[in-house]
Amino acid sequence: xxxxxxxxxxxxxxxxxxxxxxxxxxxxxxxxxxxxxxxxxxxxxxxxxxxxxxxxxxxxxxxxxxxxxxxxxxxxxxxxxxxxxxxxxxxxxxxxxxxxxxxxxxxxxxxxxxxxxxxxxxxxxxxxxxxxxxxxxxxxxxxxxxxxxxxxxxxxxxxxxxxxxxxxxxxxxxxxxxxxxxxxxxxxxxxxxxxxxxxxxxxxxxxxxxxxxxxxxxxxxxxxxxxxxxxxxxxxxxxxxxxxxxxxxxxxxxxxxxxxxxxxxxxxxxxxxxxxxxxxxxxxxxxxxxxxxxxxxxxxxxxxxx
Length: 306
Fold this sequence. Notes:
306 residues, alpha+beta, Cyclophilin, 5-stranded antiparallel β-sheet, 4 helices
């Protein structure tokens, strides 16, 4: 595969780099793991296989051999050889075919799965790109015009898979409810701010990325004289900086931080959050940990019973 025109931020991502947070290494991996899983299923790859994650604008790719591909996630008006290219199904391409994307008009991140494995080295047991650290994926960076990627697959086979309609996402710019559980410092929010947090419609700030999603809304306040030492964080941790505007840490976010961890986005809603575009909006809904656990169990069961 040749990159004819680079996207805004296209990287190789798998299911993430796990077991290294004690060394300060974030997990990275696909921001929308559901879309990654579906893309891999469509091309008969293992669910944790690496894919291309295209953010906001996908770019143009030319294939240099017979391949089986699939597209999931954000709709970037994909075209194959200038004809509309259907998403959520396996697609056979041949040498010289050109896949082109526009800008996302629903969602923000598109995933390209290619049958087989990319010819790149694993770093810490993962193919995921960690751009800030400069390792993983393709030379530890975003893909650029002129780059060439090879996939290891001598005998591509199209199983003609189509993702069932009821499993396909329906992205919204404004009607988003993101479920959360209380964080370790939830009790340090003032009573007024605890109520306000669930009532505020937050806007996604343009200065959001794979490290964290910044929110804009009514400023929250902590109780007087609160301070804390740097403490562990995870993807989905919602920190509250001194300006009172929450930040949701994402896949490339730091592993520790000194801001209060007022809440955490539940695992099954992280991908939905990652697909809300800048200036899109959301509201938070507080649930208990048992409900969050049941939702995760249901999500995992649904993913593996396509």
